Amino acid sequence: MKDVARTVDIRPVASKRDVKPFWRAALVAQGDDPAYAPPLLKETYDVLTPGCTPFARENDGQAWVAFRDGRPVGRIYAVKNNAHLKKYDDATGQFGFLEAIDDDVVWDALFATASDFARARGLSRLAGPFSASINHECGLLVEGYGVPSTTHTNYAPPYYARQLQRLGFIPVKDIVGYEGRLADSRLPERVAAIRGKWSGSADLTLRRAQGPTAVAELNDVYNDAWSVNWGSSPVSQEEARFLAELAQQILPPDWTTLADWKGEPIGVLCMAPDLNEAVRDLGGKLLPFGWAKLIWRLKVTGVSRARVPIIGVRRAWRGTRVGAMAAAALLADAVEKASKAGCERLEVSWMLEDNRSVLNLVRSMPATRSKVWRIFEKTL
C-alpha cells in the first residue's frame, strides 16, 4: 500500500472531538486482521482526551493523527516523561499509540512530527512504543503474529517493525508473554505441598486488595518491586487511583491480590479476564448494545482466557525463600481463580526477557513463550 506521491496531513489531537479520528486510525490500519481487537472508543476517550488523565497532567505529551484525503490513516503520541527523565536523565522522549497503514510517506510524516516535538523539548533520543509509558501498554509485537491479542497488550502486523527499522530505530529490549492451558497446571497442588513442609508458611498470607488503603498499598509494592527493572519509572498515587478506577470496570474483585509476610505487604499480583475476547466483534463500540454483550460475556458466559499483567515482590525479598514463596503462592492462587471462573488458558505478560526468576516460575505453571514485544530507540 505504498504511494509516495500522495500527501499526508498531520493534525494534533487538541480536543475531545479529535479523539474519534485518532481511534479510527487504528481500525483503518489493522481492522481486517482477525487477531486484532479494535480498541474501545470509550476507553480511547478516557485516556486520550487532552489533559483528562493524571499521566497527561503530569507530563508534556501530544497525540497526532495522519490524514489522507480526509481519512485517518495513522496516528502517534509523543511525550516528555518527567518521571523517566528524573530517574535516568538520558534526554529520551517516548512515543506510543502507534498505528498506521503500510505507507512510507505516512510513517515518515508521523515520526518527523514526533521527532520535532522531542527536539523542541531538548531531547536527543526517541524510544518506544510506550502507550503512554512503560507502566501501560508497551513494546511492539515481533513474535506471535496471528495469535489473538489479550487485554491491554499491543498487537501489530509484521510491517510495523520493518517500518521502524527503515526509519533507523534499533532494538533495545524484548519483553515476553507466556501462555499455558490451565487444565495442565498442577501448580496450586505443588505450592500447597511445599508450603505444608515450610516452617514459615503461617507467616505468609494472601488477601484480596480492597478497602480505602488498597490502591496505596498496591502502588507502593509495585513501585518498589519494579524500581530496579530495566526502564522502570514510578507511578504516582493519582495515576494509580485513575488506573484502578478503569480496572474496576472489568476486574473481578478478588483478582487483585497482595501477599503479606508477617502482616506487611511484600508481593502483588493482578489478573484480568481477556477483555479483547469479549469485545473483538464489537468494532470498538459499546453503544447501543455493546455494553450488554460485554457484561454478559464477562459476568455470565465468561471468557476462555485470562491475563496476568503484574506479578512481583519487593526488592528486599528478591532472591530469598520468602520472596520466592510469595511469588509462587500468588501465581498458584491466580491459576485456581482463573480455573474456577471457567477460563481455559492463562497468559502472563509482560516479563523482561532476562528476568529469570519470574520466567522460571511461569514456565513451571506450565506455560510456553507465545509472544514477544520489542522496545526500539533512535538517536535524533
TrEMBL record:
InterPro entries associated with the record: Acyl_CoA_acyltransferase, BcerS-like
Gene3D superfamilies recorded: 3.40.630.30
Spans through the membrane: none
Top-level taxonomic group: Bacteria
Entry coiled-coil feature ranges: none
Cross-referenced SUPFAM superfamilies: Acyl-CoA N-acyltransferases (Nat)
PANTHER family (UniProt xref): PROTEIN YGHO (PTHR41368:SF1)
Protein name, UniProt field: GNAT family N-acetyltransferase
